[in-house]
Amino acid sequence: MKLKANYVVTMNKSYEIIENGEIIFDKEIIEIGTNLPKCEKEIDLGENSVIMPALINSHTHLEFSSNKTLLEYGDFIIWLNSVIKHRETLFVECKTECFKKAIDEMKKSGICAFGEISSTGDDLKYLKHSPLKVAYFNEIIGTAPGAVDMLYQDFLVRLSESQALEGKNFKTGISIHSPYSVHPVLMDKVIEIAKKKNLPIQAHFMESKAERRWLDEGEGEFKLFFEKHFKNAKPFIKPIEFLEKFKNTKTTFVHCVYANDKELSKIKEIKADIAHCPVSNRLLNVGLLDLERVKNFSIDYSVATDGLSSNYSLNLFKEIRAALLMHIELHPKYLAKDLLKAVTINAAKELGFNNGSLEPGKDADMVTFKLPSKVTQKELLPLQIILHTNEVDHLFINGKLIK
Ligand code: BEZ
Ligand code: FE2
Questions:
Q1: Which H helix or E strand runs over 304?
Q2: Which ligand has the shortest distance to the CA of 60?
Q3: pLDDT digits over 29-50, tens only?
Q4: CA-closest residue to ligand 1 atom 4
Q5: Domains defined along the chain, listed by start
Q6: CA distances for 402 relative to 58, 123, 224, 364, 378, angstroms
Q7: pTM surpassing 0.90?
Q8: Residues forming the active site
Q9: Which of 18, 161, 375, 381 has an alpha carbon within 20 to 30 A of 146's alpha carbon?
Q10: How far apart are CA 172 and CA 160, in angstroms?
């Protein structure tokens, strides 16, 4: 089949945007360019149309999708306490309809794949039928030394149940919740498995000032938090030691708002990525990741919504529009280009899918939509796309029309 549009945004290495471009594909992309050979089935998408790679939401927690107004925003520790208080209720309330709604919202906004952090494995029965591609990160969380064995056994069961679904549209990975919430013995065991099986990893890292203070000094709001919930008084690990553990793995560190230069340099050295979740960070009032610094360290980043536990929407166009408006230190024209990369090619690399750019041999995972009127300056196209797009007209996954 062949599609033709005013603009084909390839997201290839040279960020090529083809005017009056065409793309021939079946399950994979076959050819891309202008004046391509005739095909039996051809669609010209018309005035102001755009084709680009479908979006990829690198980091979500769909198991929290029943949250709307329950959790407390405005302060990280207050929020975390509210998560602990309401976690079970929210999980019980999120069943078939709730997962379907979450996936539908992503589908409408042109998302073809997402990274799911699963803490219980209960979401697997819903996600195995997902029309979108899933990178399923089995999460380990828990600091109590006496619970290590039980938590590890539970993790192994969840990992093996998810690995049974492994395929082109379903990838498995592991997630270490954070440096403050996982016993180092558990970290080591689980990272070892990821290394052996070559699984991608995600870990929350330096999300709040409270985390910074707790890990550096064993003081601050987290001290009270740990005394209240877990009765342990000391952090287990220094941030840099934590990062060291991920050497020779394929890891994405989520948030990194309070990561210092030494840590960013380590993240670069071990070839890890960062997932940036600006709306979540704003709602929990933890500040804003310094993207210019991330760029200066040449660290690749994706942008993700995080879960509905700390966002009002799973729409990635809304997320990158928020990012565009929040990062006032960066020029909108160049930031827009980077943000489109963040939700396509960079996120694909993090999750391990063969998509994220329109190039021969890549999966035909792409979206089409129309801009409201003509774009006079081609270099402003990424910015105009982010400003004017909320939903897509078509979503193709492996060349099949999904929306
Ligand atoms: C724990 O299970 O030990 C834990 C969970 C959340 C934050 C910190 C610790
Ligand atoms: Fe998260």
A1: none
A2: 2
A3: 999 999 999 999 999 999 999 9
A4: 181
A5: 2-53+357-402 (2.30.40.10), 55-351 (3.20.20.140)
A6: 20, 22, 48, 12, 29
A7: yes
A8: 207
A9: 161
A10: 10
